[in-house]
């Protein structure tokens, strides 16, 4: 199939492309404005076009010229704190950009649309959350993602595509191939931050909030290895294709780790890191992890990399690699 991957030069997108190109029948087109993506993450077996999803004309032209049948849409901004401060940027980039992409599907051969959403659309939940839970976004980033979900659903019957909406939990780690990992530092991801600190003489980690009503007062999250998440995209695409049914799925392992627990695992693996406690970040949820029942039932998929120590270690190794070449 001819597959367009927006945001394919980014962290998660590049891992998806790494798995898609293994099937020689697939032709992959990466569309990315390189705002937080990197040329070094662009797969050589894919075609790369530098472009912005805010450019609807270019999107339309590409979808038609390359006879695209599948869209895997990851392009977007993802910093929760930034989204609270700069709503306009998130509205334009995440919502208007995605709207352009959906509208560009009209009268084309697009049959399947996979969208990267987030567990933060659920808002203030406590503990395990299933897809049945009504979305109630509490920060602007999550709000834009939820609006995109609604849009993709709304146009699905009109433009005759099936969709898979994937609500990622916290993505971490790096590919076993050693070729891919997270490069962008601005997203404020805990595991990436620890990996950065692993190269410092006096490592420090900031913990935002230690008075949440959780097991140790720090936020609890469900960490999924990026290669497992990438694989879920392939499985979801096969599902919507074979069953001819759209799906909405949580993507997590169903296990919650607190920030302190992650830091303690890191300490055992690497070095003693000084903890600096900071105020809570606006928009952060206390505790969320995935209920995996629907996921297990529909995809019948087993994770390969669900070992938190290995996840953290792979991020550390990747950090060392990109800082020594
Ligand atoms: N990393 C996580 O933990 C996580 C969790 C939930 C959801 N997500 C979603 O997954 C997607 C990918 O995130 P990531 O972690 O790989 O981050 P990333 O920053 O590495 O990837 C985003 C990519 O989109 C590109 N991009 C941004 N705006 C664009 C635009 N207007 N036009 C074209 N390209 C544009 C960037 O250059 C980058 O390559 C995002 O949509 C994000 O919201 C990520």
Summed up:
This protein is α/β, with parallel strands linked by helices and 325 residues long. Helices cover 38% and strands 20% of the residues.
Write structural notes for this entry:
By secondary structure, this protein is of the alpha/beta class. The protein has two domains: 2-171 and 222-251, NAD(P)-binding Rossmann-like Domain (Rossmann fold, 3-Layer(aba) Sandwich), CATH 3.40.50; 174-221 and 253-287 and 295-324, UDP-galactose 4-epimerase, domain 1. The chain contains ten helices and 15 strands. The strands form five sheets. The chain has a seven-stranded parallel sheet with strand order 3-2-1-4-5-7-12, sandwiched between helices. Strands 6-15 form a two-stranded parallel sheet. Bound molecules: nicotinamide-adenine-dinucleotide (NAD). Nicotinamide-adenine-dinucleotide binds at residues 6-7, 9-13, 32-37, 52-54, 74-78, 93, 97, 116, 118, 168, 170-171, 184.
Distance between the termini: 35 Å
- The count of helical stretches stands at 10
Write down the CATH class of the largest domain.
Answer: Alpha Beta
Beta-strand share of residues: 15-25%
The CATH architecture of the largest domain: 3-Layer(aba) Sandwich
How do the strands line up in the largest sheet?
3-2-1-4-5-7-12
Full CATH superfamily name of the largest domain? NAD(P)-binding Rossmann-like Domain
Main β-sheet description: 7 strands, parallel
CATH domain topology of the largest domain? Rossmann fold
């Amino acid at each position: 199939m001819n597959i367009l991957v927006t945001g394919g030069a980014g962290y998660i997108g590049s891992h998806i492309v790494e798995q898609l190109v293994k099937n020689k029948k697939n032709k992959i087109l990466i569309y990315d404005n390189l705002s937080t993506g990197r040329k070094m993450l662009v797969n050589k077996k894919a075609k790369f076009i530098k472009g912005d999803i805010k450019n609807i004309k270019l999107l339309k032209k590409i979808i038609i010229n390359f006879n695209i049948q599948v869209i895997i849409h990851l392009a977007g901004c993802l910093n929760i704190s930034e989204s609270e401060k700069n709503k306009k940027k998130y509205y334009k980039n995440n919502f208007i950009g995605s709207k352009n992409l959906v509208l560009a599907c009209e009268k084309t051969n697009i049959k399947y649309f996979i969208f990267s959403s987030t567990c933060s659309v659920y808002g203030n939940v406590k503990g395990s959350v299933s897809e049945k839970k009504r979305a109630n976004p509490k920060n602007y980033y999550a709000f834009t993602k939820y609006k995109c979900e609604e849009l993709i659903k709304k146009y699905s019957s009109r433009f005759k595509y099936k969709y898979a909406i994937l609500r990622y939990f916290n993505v971490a780690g790096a590919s076993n191939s050693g070729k891919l990992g997270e490069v962008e530092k601005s997203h404020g991801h805990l595991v990436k931050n620890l990996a950065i600190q692993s190269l410092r003489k006096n490592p420090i980690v900031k913990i935002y909030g230690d008075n949440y009503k959780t097991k140790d007062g720090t936020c609890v999250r469900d960490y999924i290895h990026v290669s497992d998440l990438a694989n879920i995209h392939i499985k979801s695409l096969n599902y919507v294709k074979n069953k001819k049914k759209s799906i909405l799925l949580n993507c997590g392992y169903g296990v919650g780790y607190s920030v302190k627990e992650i830091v303690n695992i890191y300490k055992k693996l690497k070095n003693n890191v000084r903890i600096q406690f900071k105020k809570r970040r606006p928009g952060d949820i206390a505790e969320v992890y995935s209920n995996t029942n629907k996921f297990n039932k529909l995809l019948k998929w087993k994770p390969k990399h669900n070992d938190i120590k290995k996840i953290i270690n792979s991020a550390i190794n990747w950090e060392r690699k990109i800082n020594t070449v």
